[in-house]
Design brief:
Helix 2 runs antiparallel to helix 3. This protein starts with a helix and ends with a helix. The chain contains six helices and seven strands, in the order αααββααβββββα. The protein is α+β, with helices and mostly antiparallel strands. The protein has a single domain (36-150), classed as Nuclear Transport Factor 2, Chain: A (Roll), CATH 3.10.450. It is globular.
Length: 154
């Protein structure tokens, strides 16, 4: 719970100096597009691939809660700010998924190793099943990769 609150505090307290150009409107709630992933591991993989591609829209369909994707359940401006911050923290050159274990309240915990330059970090991702048995990245260990964002080129 402390990790979740810390992550929430960091995400809500940080605002980027500039915001990226919009890549088009987010699909409307209830749109017929499939969101999330078929498995917990796939949700983390898709999320990290979207981070690497700097694709905020793709991140938004894999980031969510048991209620579904955050893009359908959160204010768009707030969501974009959070995803830009997550993109900075979790930006990487390559990744590999490690373990997969049960977590609290229906979560799956997926370990990952992120490599950026000569540095590697191993954050855990907390993934939850949502509507339609689709999986969403609900939370992650930001503190583990905080130097990835701090050392990012500006």
């Amino acid at each position: 719970m402390k990790k979740y609150l810390l992550a929430l505090l960091v995400l809500s307290a940080c605002t980027p100096a500039t915001t990226p150009a919009s890549r088009g409107p987010a699909p409307a709630a209830g749109a017929n597009q499939l969101t999330g992933a078929a498995t917990a591991r796939a949700a983390v993989e898709q999320f990290l691939n979207a981070v690497r591609a700097e694709d905020i829209q793709a991140m938004s369909v894999n980031f969510g809660t048991s209620q579904g994707p955050a893009r359908d359940n959160m204010d768009r401006d707030e969501l974009e700010k959070r995803l830009v911050i997550l993109q900075c923290f979790f930006n990487h050159d390559k990744f590999r998924l490690l373990g997969d274990s049960p977590g609290d309240d229906g979560h799956r915990i997926i370990g990952a190793e992120l490599t950026r330059g000569g540095q590697s970090r191993s954050p855990r991702f907390y993934v939850i099943s949502g509507p339609g048995r689709r999986w969403y990245v609900d939370n992650m260990e930001i503190a583990v990769v905080r130097d990835f964002c701090r050392d990012a080129p500006r």
